[in-house]
Design goal:
This protein is of the alpha+beta class. The chain has two domains: 143 residues, DNA methylase specificity domains (Adenine-n6-DNA-methyltransferase TaqI, Chain A, domain 2, Alpha-Beta Complex); 180 residues, DNA methylase specificity domains (Adenine-n6-DNA-methyltransferase TaqI, Chain A, domain 2). 35% of the residues lie in helices and 21% in strands. It has a five-stranded mixed β-sheet.
């Protein structure tokens, strides 16, 4: 690579494991304070930057942990190996995560992120083979990564970051549209429900409708791990031979029915199939389809409603580790039915939102492909940028 120099991360910054000394790790007295606590699942879903958190430590939690500064590159070393994201706020994380704080005189933070992204497959391979795939700190400390001059690092990072910034903007636009729809749903179907006719949700939404897919058919497959918690579209999907699982079509909403995926907020709106195609996925999905009087997106907005999710959690049954929603109970959820004029207006608003959501989603996929094409060319030196 010419003037590129191989270095260990520890040579160009601080590399340490996160800390969570207390056992059991989930002791209640550690939580509920002001210090964000990040885990591996949140890093996987972060799309470069960690902007949200689900748990916090209190003073007791912080005492047995460590507060990392904003700008720390988080690297998972257990469960989902080599998932990467950058903190946008000070936070704690457990020992299943490495923290890297770059020496700004030696390495650019964004370039470090893209370097590890480029070598992600190799890093995952290092951790394969144990009972639970993992990489220990000692192994990671020995890995050499190529770094050009700081000025070239910045130039490369600028090209890739410009694409990621556009992707992030489109994600945030979609999140804003979803939030607007959720606010209207809450106002028209929840907050004023006592003034309106109340009916069971099964009158408005069909649960687990029959879909046909022959065994052995190659069809789009969606894993639970690829369902987002904060936006309508999944992370990725792929073709796979159908054997058994949940079947769905475009316009269906998929809601996680198993703990902790349900509590974490996993649901998705299916738009990624070809016309007339039936997709399939995890058996742990509940399929929801709006009845004809409502826009299909209604079911997805419902799936994000706090009251509905709380009710669904109340329908969990089974052993504590593998509880599942009893759909026969879930369909009894009660909802207020607004005037027909409000339903027509809500449908019209959703009809206006959906094309924009889908357009942004397609733009995101296009930009991601461009970024993923450029990444190896820039990181290998095949394509050079002006410094």
């Amino acid at each position: 690579m010419g003037e590129w120099k191989e270095c260990r991360l520890g040579d160009v910054g601080l590399l340490q494991r996160g800390r969570s000394r207390h056992r059991p790790r989930y002791a209640f007295h550690l939580y509920g304070g002001k210090y964000p606590f990040i885990q591996t699942g949140e890093i996987r879903e972060a799309r470069k930057y960690i902007r949200k958190y689900n748990q916090t430590y209190n003073e007791a939690g912080l005492e047995q942990s460590k507060l990392w500064p904003a700008g720390t590159l988080c690297i998972t070393i257990a469960a989902n190996i080599a998932e990467l994201a950058i903190l946008t706020f000070d936070a704690c994380f457990p020992d299943s995560v490495l923290g890297f704080v770059p020496n700004q005189e030696k390495v650019n933070l964004d370039f470090a992120y893209y370097t590890l992204t480029y070598f992600q497959k190799e890093l995952k391979h290092i951790g394969e083979g144990s009972v639970q795939d993992n990489i220990n700190l000692g192994t990671f400390e020995d890995v050499l990564f190529p770094f050009p001059s700081l000025s070239e690092q910045r130039a490369i990072a600028l090209v890739l970051s410009s694409l990621d910034d556009k992707i992030d903007l489109l994600h945030r636009q979609n999140k804003t549209l979803e939030a607007m729809a959720e606010t209207l749903f809450r106002q028209w179907f929840v907050e004023e429900a006592d003034k309106r006719e109340v009916r069971q949700i099964s009158d408005l939404v069909e649960f687990n409708p029959v879909r046909t897919l022959s065994k052995g058919t190659i069809a789009s497959y969606l894993e639970m791990a690829n369902v987002n918690t904060d936006v309508f579209h999944p992370i990725e999907w792929y073709d796979r031979e159908y054997n058994s699982g949940t079947k769905f079509i475009n316009g269906d909403t998929l809601l996680a029915r198993i703990t902790p995926c349900l509590e974490n907020g996993k649901s998705t709106y299916v738009t990624f199939l070809k016309e007339g195609q039936v997709g399939w996925g995890s058996t742990e999905f509940i399929v929801m389809r709006s009845e004809n009087i409502l826009h299909p997106l209604f079911s997805y907005i419902l799936s994000k409603n706090t009251g509905f999710r709380d009710y669904a959690e109340g329908c969990l049954e089974g052993s504590s580790g593998r509880q599942r929603v009893n759909v026969d109970h879930l369909i009894n959820f009660e909802i207020g039915i607004p005037d027909q004029s409000i339903i027509v207006l809500f449908n019209r608003i959703l009809s206006g939102f959906e094309p924009k959501l889908q357009y942004n989603f397609k733009q995101i996929r296009t930009l991601e492909k461009l970024r993923d094409t450029l990444l190896p060319k820039l990181m290998s030196g095949e394509v050079r940028v002006e410094v």
